[in-house]
Design goal:
This protein is of the alpha+beta class. It has two domains: 75 residues, OB fold (Dihydrolipoamide Acetyltransferase, E2P), CATH 2.40.50.140; 135 residues, de novo design (two linked rop proteins). It is built from five helices and eight strands, in the order βββββαααβββαα. The strands form two sheets. The chain has a five-stranded antiparallel sheet. The longest helix is centred in the last third of the chain and has 16 residues. The relative contact order is 0.12. Bound molecules: zinc ion (ZN). Zinc ion (ZN) binds next to strand 8.
């Protein structure tokens, strides 16, 4: 079988080998990388978390790696500590993607996220990732009308606990609703999304993931 995917994690397998878990356009798979603990076998690129790869495996339920190419190397990006930490969050969230999700649609987006790690501001990249991933998790925040009064204009606020927008009659505090709308609904190159107060947005997203998905994001 021929695949393209991103390395999520690896675990030891027998004495000299590893099983590598990858996210692909067909979902998550585990692949045996036989002899991968020995440097001379040249499998380090296949077992490095965060690498984007193309690869060929045997056709079995726990397939064995036959050959691979590195499409995007995480090591070459020379990431900062913050970028490493956020990479861990991104991998953690990808691990939680439900099995029956439309992986062929999600994978190209995730590949785009990974290709921009080390290029785009990591706070912005993580914010875009977390908002767009709400959709495959089955979460649609109500951004179209006020959840208190039904008003469809002058929406200014996202209430994390109530799960949607509030209008200017119902609250007199501004936060990131335009950004939520843009990030959730629009599709464009990642560097074209607007900037905002990312610390505030990431805090909202952390609360949102905890409240609605029971996923703990450690910022
Ligand atoms: Zn209202």
């Amino acid at each position: 079988m021929k695949y393209e995917g991103i390395v999520l994690s690896e675990i030891d397998y027998k004495e000299a080998s590893k099983i590598v878990n990858l996210y692909t356009d067909k979902g998550k798979i585990g692949v045996k990388a036989l002899g991968s603990k020995k440097i001379k076998n040249g499998l380090l690129g296949f077992t490095t978390t965060g690498n984007t790869l193309s690869f060929v495996t045997t056709d079995s339920s726990l397939p064995t790696l036959l050959e691979y190419d590195i499409l995007d190397s995480i090591v070459k990006k020379d990431l900062s500590l913050d970028e490493m930490k956020y990479l861990g969050i991104i991998l953690y969230v990808i691990n939680m993607i439900p099995i029956d999700s439309p992986h062929s649609k999600i994978y190209p987006f995730i590949k785009q996220i990974f290709s921009n790690i080390g290029i785009i501001n990591i706070d912005k990249l993580l914010s875009i990732f977390l908002i767009k991933m709400l959709y495959p998790f089955g979460i649609t925040p109500n951004l179209k009308s006020c959840i208190k009064c039904g008003n469809t204009s002058n929406l200014i606020f996202i209430d994390i606990n109530l799960g949607g927008a509030l209008c200017s009659n119902c609250i007199n505090e501004f936060n990131n609703i335009n950004i939520w709308n843009e990030y959730y609904y629009e599709k464009k190159k990642l560097d074209l999304y607007s900037d905002t107060d990312f610390k505030l947005l990431l805090n909202q997203l952390r609360n949102y993931y905890l409240n609605y998905l029971n996923i703990k994001i450690k910022l």
